[in-house]
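User: My collaborator sent over this chain with a note saying "see what the structure looks like." That's all I know about it. Can you take a look?
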Amino acid sequence: MWSRSYLLTCMLPALMLLAGCTGDGDSGPLDTKWDRDSCERCRMVLSDRYHGAQVRYFPADKKRSVVAHFDDIGCAVLWLSGTPWEQDPRTRIWVTDRNTGAWIDAVRATYLAGDHTPMEYGLGAQEEPSPGGFDFTEAKRHIQAAEQRHRHHTAHLLQRFREQAAVREGMKTERNQPGEGSER
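Assistant: Without extra context I'll predict from the sequence alone. Here is the result:
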């Protein structure tokens, strides 16, 4: 018969090792495969190691959490907005520190405007407070305002593309019509 001390000495550590191999443990940011993973919102490849973001959320139809990767805190905030897990207290958001590239808690971070970021929301996060820095709530307002500017700009840009397409189409039509004095 197996002695109790053998079970405690050999089996307990083995069980603890197996328990540690069950996945990501539903906490903390995951390793990002830079230049391979893509942004959940815009599908751009994540390559800027100083402006990435991750959101860990708990969908109702899943047993475990899911981690979404983002190329910019702006994409993460906009993607999360209006989702069922936006207000879930288990939802976690991380950003990379603008100085070190280390993952930090996005809700506790200080955000500084003026960074050149992948999607041009312009916010860099850091752990240390800084004069003129934004807290997470202010950063979300900044992102929403930037998104409105982008939409406004995009609407004008799309209109210009339509106008240019119409001009090009008109030029094609003119070239394909016989001109005066042509003999066809």
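A starting point for your reply to your collaborator: The first strand starts at residue 53 and ends at 57.
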